[in-house]
Every structure is written in C-alpha cells, then in structure tokens.
Amino acid sequence: MLRSFLIYLSKAAWAQRMVTGWKFAWRAASRFVAGETIDDAIRAVRELNAKGINATLDHLGENTSMPDEARKATEDILALLDAIGCCAVRSNVSIKLTQIGLALDPGLCAANAEKIVAKAREQQNYIRIDMEDTPWTDQTIAIFRALRAKGYDNVGLVVQSYLLRTEADVRALLPEGARLRLVKGAYKEPPDLAFPKKADVDANFDLLTKIMIDYARENGAPLVSQDGRIPPIPALGSHDAKRIDFGIQYAQKVGLPKEAIEIQMLYGIRRDLQDQLAKAGYPVRVYIPYGTQWYPYFVRRLAERPANLWFFISNFFRG
Predict the structure, then answer these.
(1) Considering 58, 90, 128, 130, which one is annotated as catalytic?
(2) Any idea what DSSP says for residue 223?
(3) What is the pLDDT of residues 258-307, one digit of tens each?
(4) What Å distances lie between residue 117 and 71, 113, 291, 309, CA to CA?
(5) How far is CA 280 from CA 3, 55, 258, in A?
(6) Is 17 among the residues known to form the active site?
(7) pLDDT of 312 above 60
(8) Beta 180-183 vs 155-160: how paired, if at all?
(9) Contact, 78 vs 115, CB < 8 A?
(10) So what's the architecture of 34-293 in CATH?
C-alpha cells in the first residue's frame, strides 16, 4: 500500500511542486542524486573511477509534454556525451525515451534517440535505453530494434524481472545482439502484467540471470571494455545480495569470467557492497543520476526500501 502511494506521488505534479519547495528535500535527495549540473555528475564519476568503479550517467527527466522540451533534453544528453569524452572518465549514458519525446511523437523520439546513439558512437561510447512502465514497453523495444537494424551496436536495453513478459523478451533479444541490464522494476503494474509477489519477482530475476549468463558463455563471453564504457552482455542491476550472489555463483559454476558479468547499483545505495565487489575483481558500475528533474527518481527510491523513506523523514524533522 505504501509503495503504491509513493509511486503515485512520483507522478503527481502537485506533490512535486510541494516537495521540491522544501529546502530539506534536496538534502535528502542528494544522497541518491549527484547534483544538478554536468560538472556535479563528472565529479561523482571521478570519485567512483578512483575506486575502480565504472559509471552510467543519467540526465534526469521523463514524460516531457512539449516537443521543444524533448529537443532540449536531447541537446543536454549530447552535451553530457561531449563532457564524458573531454574528461576521459569511465562512464556511459542512460536515457529514458519519454524524456526525448516518446509520449509526444514516436517519430520525434526515434530521431532524437538516433542523434544520441550516433554521437555516442562518434565518442566511442555506449547508450543504455532505460525501461519505463508498461505503456511504453513495446515502443521502447521497437526503437531499440530499429537502432540496431541501422547498425548501431553501441546501444543496450533494460529489462524488468517483475513483468510476466520479460522471459520471452530476453530469449528473443539476446540472439539479436542485445546487451541487457536486468532490474526488478520500480513502477506500479497490474497483476495481469507483473508478478504481485516479491518471491516470484526474485525467482524470475534468478531465471533471467541464468539465461543471460548462459547466452554470454555460449557466445564468446565478451568482457567489459578496457575504458569501462562498453558493458558485457549480462548486467545485474540489484542491491539484493542474494540475487548478486546467485549470479556470481552461477557464473563461476558455468565458467563465465568475472569480467564478462557486471554488477550495477544506484548512486548512494550499498556503497559498502559496491566497494567489496570491486575489490574482489568484478566489474561494478554505478548509475549516477543528476539534474534539476530529480523529484520522480527520488520518490521511486523512497518506494523501493523503507530505510530510504525513514532517511527522508529524519531529514524532515531536522528541518
């Protein structure tokens, strides 16, 4: 019930106006968001790179309501790619298609996505297309496939273990050359589309992990690139130690090299585990969001774990 309410708040314009007006809200959000500028983002990447950890940068924003907003978001992402190239940091970039126009005009979105992926290819970098809630799943996969069909091999996709459809999607996408980031999912979905029980989401996460690892092992086990920008085929996006341990143990069992599986976590969450895995020789990548549109992302982080919510409440009473 609480999770559903917080997810509702993450999309509520009235709540965003209210919360972003509270001075303490940014203090709490800054645990999970690197800052509001590209300079803030690059600084966070450098701190992680110094510890042997790679990054994915995300210029926050989603569900743009005007074509000019979608074009501006696209220009901001292109500027981010230039900054990564100029600073030579070990980071790639994640994008949300609703931020660059998917809800307005799929054609506009596809054109903006191609501009971003083309710029990334020029910069020898990589773009991960995020997966949003189910109204956009088919169109997201379609745009990913269209980019691949045009010869862009520097683009990957996120898949969500809480969706009933994801096993079929993964089995279809892997042979097409997709490098996949597996997450549990952070949106509220109806029971006819998503597993309602956490145990089922976890079990599906482990099944999908096996499928991805098996495919990687059978198809050359590509490693994370030396510059840290191009990920291997399977990337496990989780802070759940049991899910991570399952993936590591299964990879060891079937003989997949450490460098051929990546563990991905969110900025500000389980830093101890990030450091532990990096020291053990596993490629670790931290997803670093930044920008002024931090509210929806922040509230979804509150919905994921009660500890995050109590962190926010403690900041409220500190004033």
Answers:
(1) 130
(2) P
(3) 999 999 999 988 999 999 999 999 999 999 999 888 777 777 776 766 55
(4) 15, 6, 20, 36
(5) 34, 18, 9
(6) no
(7) no
(8) parallel
(9) yes
(10) Alpha-Beta Barrel (3.20)
Question: Could you confirm whether 227 is annotated as catalytic?
Answer: no
Q: What is the pLDDT of residues 199-243, one digit of tens each?
A: 999 999 999 999 999 999 999 999 999 999 999 999 999 999 999
**Helix, strand, or coil here: 200?**
helix
Report whether 287 contacts 264 (CB < 8 A).
Answer: yes
pTM of the model as a whole: 0.89
What is the pLDDT at residue 136?
97
For residue 18, what are the contacts with CB-CB under 8 A and spacing of at least 6?
Answer: none
b/e map 173-193, b = 16+ CB within 10 Å: bbeeebbbbbbbbbbbbeeee
- Find the catalytic residue in 90, 128, 148, 181: 181
Q: Which residue type occupies 121? A: R
